[in-house]
Design a protein that fits this description.
binds FE2/S2 (inorganic) cluster, four-stranded antiparallel β-sheet, single chain, mainly beta, Rieske Iron-sulfur Protein
Length: 122
């Protein structure tokens, strides 16, 4: 994946925003982290792909009204913040910084590394 440096951060190119179906997330991997990319209108969002309830890939779920629904037990998360919204999810998932430039979705490498490090220390 190509990278650009902008606003003092390194951004990793993922997929063109129009390749993200508004109803279904796209799974990518950055620094070994699986990430679910979501689209709401012309905005893109990036959440850690592993559900905080049990083990399921959120990118196998669906997006509706700004929420990403888990395919296993249909808990949901806010695509903007990663906050858990619907039970049985109570803990958030990491939300990464996203930039859309020239219709390409970039994810901040530092936000991924930072969250990954935080989780490893827990
Ligand atoms: S594994 Fe996601 S809601 Fe249970």
């Amino acid at each position: 994946m190509s990278e650009i440096v902008l606003h003092g951060d390194v951004w990793v190119a993922t997929v063109p925003i129009l390749d993200i179906d508004p109803d279904y997330p796209v799974r990518v991997e950055i620094e070994g982290e699986p990430i679910a990319l979501c689209r709401v209108g012309d905005e893109a969002f990036a959440l850690n792909d592993i559900c905080s309830h049990a083990y399921a890939h959120l990118s196998d779920g669906f997006v509706e009204e700004g929420q990403l629904y888990c395919p296993l037990h249909q808990g949901s998360f806010c695509v903007r913040t990663g906050k858990a919204i619907a039970a049985p999810c109570y803990d958030p998932v990491e939300a990464y910084k996203v930039l859309v430039k020239d219709r390409m979705v970039y994810v901040s490498k530092s936000s991924v590394v930072e969250q990954k490090g935080r989780r490893l220390k827990d």
